[in-house]
Amino acid sequence: AAGKCDSPPQTTDVTEQGRSAGILHVLDIEDVKGKVRLDSSIAKAVKKAGLTQVSTKTFTKSESSTLLAFVVLEEGYILARHWTDRKYVAIDVNLWGAFHRFDELQTHLLAAFNSKSLSAFRVVGGGMYGSSTWREDQPKIGPQIVQFRNCEEKATIDDSRLSEEAVSVSGLAEVAVEEFLNIAPTSRTSLTVGVVCGYEDDDDCIMKDVLEKLPVASKVVTFWTCPGLKEMKVHDGEGEDEEEDELSPEQLSHMFTCEKAMIAKLKELKEEDETLDVFALDGSATREMIQIFNSIWGIPKFRESYTNPDQNLFFGMSSVSEEDSFHHNFFDRYRKDVRYDPAAHAKFLAQDGSVELEFDVVTVGDASTFQSLATAEGKIKSRLKGKKNADIEIVRINGAQWNYREDLQPREFSQADYDEQPGKIQYGEQKPLGRETLLQFDFNEDLTIIPNTFNLIRSELKDKSLKAGFSEKIYFTDDSVGEGAVISFVAKEGSVIIVWDGRLHLDVNLFRFDDKMELADSFLSWLLSTTGALLTLGLRDDFPRGTGRVVNFLNDIATES
Questions:
Q1: How far is the C-alpha of 103 from the C-alpha of 118, rounded, in Å?
Q2: Rounded distance, CA 245 to CA 239, Å?
Q3: How do beta strands 76-83 and 312-319 pair?
Q4: How far apart are CA 541 and CA 559, in angstroms?
Q5: What is the reported pTM?
Q6: Roughly what angle, to the nearest 10 degrees, separates helices 517-530 and 450-463?
Q7: Contact, 515 vs 524, CB < 8 A?
Q8: DSSP for 146-184?
Q9: DSSP letter assigned to residue 483
Q10: pLDDT band at residue 404, thresholds of 50, 70 and 90?
C-alpha cells in the first residue's frame, strides 16, 4: 500500500505548450448504402462531434457523387475518397487537438455513410503548435491518475472497537478469516488450525478469538510466544555494524529452546493423529516467533509430518507498515519452500477508513487458486457492503513453479493443423486500390528560416508537380492553422497532404492509385532533393488502401495465370 495514498499530481495552468503530437486514424468503411455526398456527410459528422470546420475542398465526378473531399479543421484534417462502384470510403482523420472527440466523430461518420463495416488503425505523428484546443487537451493527455482508495487520515484507536458505524478490527478479521477458511484446499468440513500469537500474559490475540468462534475450525491450537524471547533484540537488517547485530549465545539459546518447544507441541498433535490443515499468524506474533516457524516449515520433513503437504492454507494478519514486512516475507518464503504448483501467495489490503490491515494468504494444492482467491475477495466485499468505508482488495498474487513432467510429449503444430479457410477467404476477397505512405521529417535548421523551406516545398509542389511524379494538379489548397500550415495537392494519380507543425516537424501523407513502391520512393527522393540537407526522415509507414479488409499490396497477391 506504500505510496498509494500519496497525493496525486495536481493539474496546474499551463502557459506554454510543450511537445505537440497528433494521431492519424485510418478508416476503411465498406458496404456503404445509398447515395452519399462526402462533403455534406463529413460536415454533419464534424458538427455533431463538436469540431470546428475551417475549409472544405471537393472533387466531384458528377453532380451526385463526390469522389474526394478534403476538410481542414481547427483540430486537424479529414481526407476522404469514395469509390462509388465498390461502396467503399477511405478516410484519414488526422487530429492534433480535441483527441477525446474522435470516438464520437467516428460514430457519426459511420451513421452518415449508413455502414457497420469498419476496419481501422492509427499512427502517431506530429501535431500543431498553437492549436486552438491545446490548453483543453493538456490535462487529458497521458494516463489519468484517480484516487479510488479511501485515504482519510488514520485516527488513534484502541485495539478493538471503532465507531458504531464502522466495522471493528476484530469484526473485519472475522469476516476475512471465515472466507479464507472457506477456500482451504481440503475436502474436510472441520479443520485443525494452528495460530501463532504474541505473549499470553500481555497480548490480545484477535486471530485466536476469531477462529474459536467459527464452527469450521473444530480444533484451534495456539502457539503463544515463548516468554524467554521477551527481552531479546534480534538483528533488524538496519544496523551499521553486522557484528553488533548478531545474536549472542544467550539469545541463540532462547531461540533454540523455543523452537524445540514448538516442535514438541506439533509432535503432540501428530500423536493424536492430527495435522494442521490451516496455519495462521496473528498480528501480535513477534518477529522472533515468526523466524522460529520459518525455520520449522523450511524443513520438508516437518511440513510433511505436521501439515497436509498436498493441501493446506497459511494466512496471517498484520498492520500496514515497513516494520511488519517480516509477516509478508514469512508467507512468501513458505510459498518458495513449497516451490511447485499449485500454490500461490496473495496479499489482501483491508481498510475501514481509520485503520488498514494486511492479510497474507498462501494456498497449497488448490488447482483453482486464482479463482478461489477472487471468490474470497468478492464474498468479503459483499459482506462489508454497507459498513462505513470498509473494503478489501487483492493487491498482489505470486504463483509457484510449474511441475516438471518427465512423460510430457508436447505436440508440435504445423500450419495444416489450423483452419486456413477464413484467411484464404479474406486473402481472396481483398482488393488493393492504392498505396498510402506516411512520412515524418524533422528540420535540420534554425527555426527562423524553416518558413522559407516550407514555402519552397509549397511552390515546387504547386508549380512543378511533374518533378514530384504527378501530372497537372486538379486543385491545390493552402491553409494556415495554429502556428503552422496545411497543404493539400490533388492530381489524377493521387494526392499529397503536408502538415508543418509551426516548429521543427513535417508530416507528409502521400496517396497514389498505383501502389508500386518505386513511385513512393521517387516522391521521397524528390522532396529530399528539393530541400537539400534540411530534412531528416524519422519514420515511414506504407500500407494499402482498398476493400475486403485489405492488408496486401497488389504485387503481394498471387494471381492465377
A1: 13
A2: 6
A3: unpaired
A4: 26
A5: 0.60
A6: 130
A7: no
A8: ---S--PPPPP--SS---TTSPPHHHHHHHHHHHHHHT-
A9: T
A10: confident
